[in-house]
Specification:
Helix content: 25-40%
Shape: globular
């Protein structure tokens, strides 16, 4: 379970984050990235899209991946939520660095 009790479900994400750095890390290590930075999770897609759009400029300025919206399931309640996440990272430490750069309520979650 994630720190917040929310885990991705088996459906594909609404949008996939894909970067050269992520592909290189996967090819080098052979392991899929284990962590992401979550900026928020919402019941309405429109709210998640708005946050992703607002945070895109910050992400670009900080030279991190563009925020993407993923459909996830809250394991505690079974509710579907739209999570706004940035990047895919091999280590919690790498993800925490990005969370700190993004500021606000950003936090590290397991993928």
């Amino acid at each position: 379970a994630l720190d917040d009790g929310v885990e991705p479900d088996e459906r594909p994400p609404v949008a996939l984050a894909d970067s050269k750095a992520t592909r290189t890390a996967q090819a080098t290590s052979g392991a899929a990235p284990a962590f992401a930075v979550q900026l928020g999770a919402f019941e309405k897609r429109e709210t998640a899209d708005a946050l992703a759009k607002r945070q895109a400029a910050t992400a670009k300025k900080m030279q991190v991946a563009t925020p993407q919206v993923y459909l996830i399931t809250d394991q505690a309640t079974g509710r579907s939520l739209y999570a706004v996440r940035v990047g895919e990272y091999q280590t919690r430490e790498a993800a925490q660095t990005v969370a700190t750069l993004m500021g606000g309520p950003a936090r590290v979650v397991k993928r």
